[in-house]
């Protein structure tokens, strides 16, 4: 009797990189930067579908370096925003990126807001943030044109150019950045790694995939074969520019409603000296729906099919109706601004570019209120990183890098 000798075939893969990052916003680029800082020589490739970095959430926000006062003590948002704000200021100073530590006011304009304002003082102190409580007359010390019953001053808030930060992270990371590379297919083999096909037909192979694709992070996760158990529901934030910027010295916010992740219509003096007013928050009809005229039926259909979307609508329809009213009526928007800044007139506001928030929503309609990072075989997914993710991008990048390097080491 003869036995055929068994052959063991070893599959050899020519990897293009060790870590393949999908998404060239500030979180993806911070992750690439953190990986190469932690383990020099690690080969990182970043795939970004646009022709340059930071074209969506990073490039469409108000440029505020948040203090971390709003976030639940012990949460990732609280920890990473407080530490990340100080790091961001240091990073900007090191690389000569325009920035300023301005401080900000959070102003109560109605009596029912006073308990919430006091709760913010307590939360700030729990998060290690110094705050100063102000009576109505003291508000004018900081903002002569702003009116309110009481306020708190948060000295660690600042502003910067987050797009310039993203560009510097890309350069300093030493990663290969491929622009115009939209991911259309992911083939993951747990024993080997991942192969990603882009829209132009290129295939990029890596040992580990890091998904930092923001508005499309849930789709990339499902493409990889992981069920994120959430969906991105896009909310558009609509802004105006104040044509009389002399009315506002710095940053002025209302007291937020703790039931929502949105901070309400606020006044923000940017690093260029202009003052932005907004945003209100309305459902977007596409993931990159920067106006009511941008409708993508496939994306809108996916949002409407997700049970969580309808549960949000049923639970918060009154709040949503107010936001929609301010979207279609400039007069209603101006009315909201006048609560803080009585001198503003309708002609003082001109439309400014909008932003879209990639908000993770669970099946039961819960709005995910913290950063959400999940892992799968050979993959790390950043599934909820809206504001204050730009502020917190350096510590977020280190945490994602830590997880990716752990997967790389185990593989």
Secondary structure layout plus pairing:
Elements: E1 17-22, H1 26-38, E2 44-48, E3 64-65, H2 76-94, E4 99-101, E5 104-108, H3 114-126, E6 131-135, H4 136-142, E7 150-154, E8 158-160, H5 162-173, E9 176-179, E10 183-189, E11 193-198, E12 203-211, H6 217-224, E13 231-242, E14 251-254, E15 266-269, E16 275-283, H7 297-305, H8 307-315, H9 317-328, H10 330-338, E17 349-361, E18 372-376, E19 379-384, H11 393-410
Helix pairs in contact: 1-5, 1-11, 2-11, 9-10
Shape: globular
Counted by DSSP, the helix tally is: 11
CA radius of gyration is: 23 Å
Structural class: alpha+beta
Mean pLDDT: 94
What's the count of strands?
A: 19
Order of helices and strands: EHEEHEEHEHEEHEEEEHEEEEHHHHEEEH
Profile the largest sheet: 8 strands, mixed
Distance between the termini: 41 Å
- State the helicity in percent bands: 25-40%
Approximate strand percentage: 25-35%
Report what the structure shows.
The structure is a single chain. The chain has helices at residues 26-38, 76-94, 114-126, 136-142, 162-173, 217-224, 297-305, 307-315, 317-328, 330-338, 393-410; strands at residues 17-22, 44-48, 64-65, 99-101, 104-108, 131-135, 150-154, 158-160, 176-179, 183-189, 193-198, 203-211, 231-242, 251-254, 266-269, 275-283, 349-361, 372-376, 379-384. By secondary structure, it is an alpha+beta fold. The strands form 3 sheets. Strands 1, 2, 9, 10, 11, 12, 18 and 19 form an 8-stranded mixed sheet that branches. An 8-stranded mixed sheet has the order 6-7-5-14-15-16-13-17, sandwiched between helices. The longest helix is centred in the N-terminal third of the chain and has 19 residues, at 76-94.
């Amino acid at each position: 009797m003869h036995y055929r000798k068994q052959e063991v075939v070893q599959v050899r893969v020519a990897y293009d990189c060790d870590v393949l990052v999908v998404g060239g916003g500030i979180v993806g680029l911070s992750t690439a930067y953190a990986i190469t800082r932690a383990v020099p020589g690690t080969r990182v490739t970043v795939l970004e579908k646009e022709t340059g970095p930071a074209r969506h959430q990073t490039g469409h926000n108000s440029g505020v370096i948040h203090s971390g006062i709003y976030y639940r003590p012990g949460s990732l948002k609280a920890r990473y925003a407080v530490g990340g704000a100080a790091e961001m200021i240091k990073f900007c100073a090191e690389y000569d990126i325009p920035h300023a530590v301005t401080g900000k006011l959070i102003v109560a304009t109605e009596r029912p807001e006073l308990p919430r304002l006091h709760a913010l003082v307590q939360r700030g102190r729990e998060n290690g943030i110094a705050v100063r409580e102000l009576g109505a007359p003291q508000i004018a010390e900081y903002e002569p044109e702003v009116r309110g019953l009481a306020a708190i001053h948060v000295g660690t808030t600042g502003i910067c150019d987050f797009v310039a930060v993203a560009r510097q992270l890309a350069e300093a990371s030493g990663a290969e950045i491929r622009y115009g590379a939209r991911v259309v297919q992911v083939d993951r083999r747990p024993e080997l790694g991942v192969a990603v096909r882009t829209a132009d037909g290129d295939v990029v192979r890596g040992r580990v995939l890091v998904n930092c694709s923001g508005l499309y992070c849930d789709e990339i996760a499902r493409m990889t074969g992981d069920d994120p158990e959430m969906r991105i529901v896009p909310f558009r934030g609509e802004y105006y520019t104040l044509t009389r910027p002399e009315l506002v010295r710095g940053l002025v916010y209302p007291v937020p409603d703790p039931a929502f992740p949105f901070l309400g219509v606020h006044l923000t003096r940017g690093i260029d000296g202009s003052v932005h007013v907004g945003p209100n928050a309305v459902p977007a009809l596409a993931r990159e729906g920067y106006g009511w005229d941008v409708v993508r039926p496939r994306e809108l259909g996916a949002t409407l099919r997700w049970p969580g979307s309808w549960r949000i609508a049923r639970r918060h329809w009154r709040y949503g109706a107010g936001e929609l009213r301010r979207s279609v009526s400039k007069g209603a928007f101006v009315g909201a601004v006048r609560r803080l800044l009585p001198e503003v007139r309708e002609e003082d506001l001109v439309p400014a570019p909008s932003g879209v928030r990639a908000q993770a929503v669970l099946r039961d309609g819960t709005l995910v209120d913290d950063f959400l990072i999940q892992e799968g075989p050979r993959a790390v997914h950043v599934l909820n990183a809206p504001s204050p993710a730009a502020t917190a991008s350096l510590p977020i990048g280190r945490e994602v890098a830590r997880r990716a390097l752990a997967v790389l080491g185990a593989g």
